[in-house]
Amino acid sequence: MANYLQLASTLHASQNKTSFHVFTSSSSTSQISPTYPHIHMTMSAGSSSLNLSSFGTQKRDMNLKVAHVAARLMPPTHRVTDDVTNAIAPPLPPLPRTQKEETKSNGGRLAAWTSIKQERWEGELQVEGDIPLWLRGTYLRNGPGLWHMGDYHFRHLFDGYATLVKLHFEDGRLVAGHRQLESDAYRAAKKNRKICYREFSETPKANNFLAYIGDIASLFSGASLTDNANTGVVKLGDGRVVCLTETQKGSIIINPNTLETLGKFEFEDPFGGLLLHSAHPIVTENEFLTLIPDLVHPGYLAVRMEPGSNGRRVIGRVNCRGGPTPGWVHSFPVTENYIIVPEMPLRYCVRNLLRAEPTPLYKFEWHPQSRAFLHVMCRASGRLVATVDVPLFVTFHFINAYEETDGDGNVTAIIADCCEHNADTSILDKLRLNNLRSSIGQDVLPNARVGRFIIPMDGTTYGRLEAALDPEEHGRGMDMCSINPSYLGKPYRYAYACGARRPCNFPNTLTKIDLEEKTAKNWYEEAAIPSEPFFVARPGATEEDDGVVISIVSGKHGEGYAVVLDGSTFEEIARAKFPYGLPYGLHGCWIPMD
Ligand SMILES: CC(=O)/C=C/C=C(C)/C=C/C1=C(C)CCCC1(C)C
Ligand SMILES: CC(/C=C/C=O)=C\C=C\C=O
Ligand SMILES: [Fe+2]
Fold this sequence. Notes:
By secondary structure, this protein is mainly β.
């Protein structure tokens, strides 16, 4: 389907006035670029127009579809054309295969915020300790590991080009490697030595005014949005392995053994025009569930895709209760029977989407007056069964959710847990690379907790939010969580996450949280930054924490290593050093060997 924003948008230029219409339900007027102070974006319910009042040199009559205009007006360096997007990366250097063939070091600096130095590497790592023989398969981790291109340096952690890391465990041995994801955004940046697509916080610089208009037009057609799938990686029920980010076009299939980029995951359904989706779908052997924010008619679509299919079907839709746009939906939880749709007061902001320079909250805006809600949708019927007003919250990551029932099996409440940043949006700014690099050792990480929502299912319209355990247990840092996947949507006891050993500027511990005992056990290594602890269950296990926890650590002196912890004791049982430093990474998945 053609993007309906694109269809709804036309560019008119007459005597001395050009208007660019965008349908939205917001209501505001603002200047959108300091470079073009004469441009104002006027938003009113149903339609917005961009008034280019002093743009008097263009005296042609135009009434063209935005994408068409974008293609004509963008200068070659900004045009998303076939020759840019199909650019072939230069041939790779020969692949070193052993640890002896040392790769470039990063000069002894903390590895976490230092870009990866080479496109790819693969080799066997020497293991200290014992990897359980039952651990057979590949752990894949994705994340933004390359934060510069030529002289251009990204500003935010989330901007970096996707770097995939693999740890293949077999017979107690470990073969590891990494490789850059060959997204169109990465290839175009490499070819042109500058960014060519809109990333999380960065926008390619328009060379002139016409290019600027083209950029705005191509934003609404989706053409300028990044496909840099740097957030997560999932294995679908049919075996395909897909890297993901928040843009739908950033869904890219890889080979989990070679980490080679195989091509776009093309959604064959009418929802591509909505451009965005949750970076964290719920993926099981049987389904792929996700939420798609609708910025035009503020709300969310819950959709489902079967293994083997590329088409999503609508389960249901929820309209926002607050406004003016949907809340950021980086992740969401499910129970056995329900999908929980979070409506966070940190909302997408159409005006900020259009700005060339990052704002303090990037593409988002904090709307406390619009309040916060959780919606409960029946997975089978798509019916909205509850909406509760909850205290203001800020979360990237929901941990899990489950139903509480009475003696007759009636659902009385839903419990939904998340890594909650005390309704404080400042964490987004703390994740700027400058901050991360300059405040090492300072105690500037904002407090966070395991936020537990209690959603009554008796028609009451208010839900509660409280800390599931004393945040001091995990140093008041909390993010990047995993659980035993067999407990998805069900009552559960353990969560694994990154906590804090203070003073710190970023979560720096691996933490096992016992939600029953309300305690945490922490793994810590001086000045190292571990990534998301990922739980892998032992085949045949009956205890929830019978398994291992895998994490990749960016070390203090530029080194990188993998650690394996016992899921039950949370003691380290094995570690293996990479011959080079690894940048911080975000989310992973497990591909078991057949
Ligand atoms: C790495 C991570 O956790 C989040 C990444 C988020 C991204 C790449 C968001 C990208 C976006 C755009 C390119 C434009 C539209 C808004 C938004 C979803 C922020
Ligand atoms: C790394 C992070 C937050 C850390 C703060 O405590 C959030 C990552 C979000 C995207 O996946
Ligand atoms: Fe995430």
